[in-house]
Specification:
Its EC number is 2.1.2.11. 40% of the residues lie in helices and 14% in strands. The protein is an alpha/beta fold and 268 residues long.
């Protein structure tokens, strides 16, 4: 089967069909996720917490991201239908245009098909430059974990009207600058719906309601492997004796049927 591309995901949005995204950090689970029908794999800097045991994503290095991107790419190319691979640029690896372009080059050469960056309108020059260089970009808005210290913790974003309006404006500006996708984390469901309708590119949600074009979860959360605090937006799909393969397939099916997330996973 033909690999999933940006055009594939854009077609899903235009046809009002949802698609699934999951984090992946190694070759084995990357191949299993792609073979379950999941369209996109996010090599997330969440690996700092779920693989390295860090308290946040901040200690993750660019070398870490390159290594895990290469692992995921190796597994993904063995899948029946290879997924699109999206890789986080880690903390302070894109503070300048030159640094951002260099960081993007590293992860793209390791096998990523798209980079993900956290921020808002200040990202416009970087997104423009990356797009000009042929690098697809996903812009991450809402709760941005790399800014956890500035935000004062892991808190829902965009609950007040002013902040919500600012986030909508930022999403539109980033798409106009060349962003190919938006990821929204921990925002009220009505804001997730509003931003999804405001932009022409696919919107991926995590704790952003059911109206976004796609959903993403951290692989370990989806498999019930989180021994600590479980966020409200998480659902364990590895229940009732399911294997890993069956859990991945169940997640994919529920995302596409829009039965996940349910009201209990949303923020008001």
């Amino acid at each position: 089967m033909n690999p999933v591309t940006i055009r594939s995901l854009q077609a899903y949005k235009s046809q009002q069909q949802t698609f699934a995204v999951i984090t992946a950090y190694d070759a084995t689970l990357a191949q299993l996720a792609a073979d379950a029908g999941i369209e996109a794999l996010l090599v997330g800097d969440s690996l700092g917490m779920v693989l390295q045991g860090q308290d946040s994503t901040l200690p993750v290095t660019l070398a870490d991201m390159v290594y895990h991107t290469r692992c995921v790419a190796n597994g993904n190319r063995r899948a029946q239908r290879p997924a699109l691979i999206m890789t986080d640029l880690p903390f302070m690896s894109y503070g300048t245009l030159e640094q951002g372009l260099a960081s993007a080059r590293e992860v793209m050469q390791a096998g990523a098909h798209m980079v993900k960056v956290e921020g808002d309108r200040w990202l416009v020059p970087l997104v423009t430059s990356l797009a000009q260089q042929g690098v697809p970009v996903c812009a991450h808005l809402g709760l941005t974990p790399q800014s956890v210290n500035k935000l004062g913790g892991y808190r829902v974003q965009g609950r007040d009207q002013s902040h919500a309006d600012t986030m909508v404006d930022a999403a539109v500006a980033l798409v106009e600058a060349g962003a190919d996708m938006i990821l929204l984390e921990c925002v009220p469901a009505d804001l997730g719906q509003r931003i999804t309708a405001a932009v022409t590119v696919p919107v991926i949600g995590i704790g952003a309601g059911a109206a976004t074009d796609s959903q993403v979860l951290v692989m370990h959360d989806m498999l019930g492997l989180n021994p600590n605090h479980v966020p409200k937006f998480v659902k364990n799909f590895a229940t009732s004796g399911r294997t890993v393969n069956e859990a991945l397939a169940a997640y994919n099916d529920e995302v596409k049927a829009r039965t996940f997330p349910g009201p209990e996973h949303e923020f008001a």
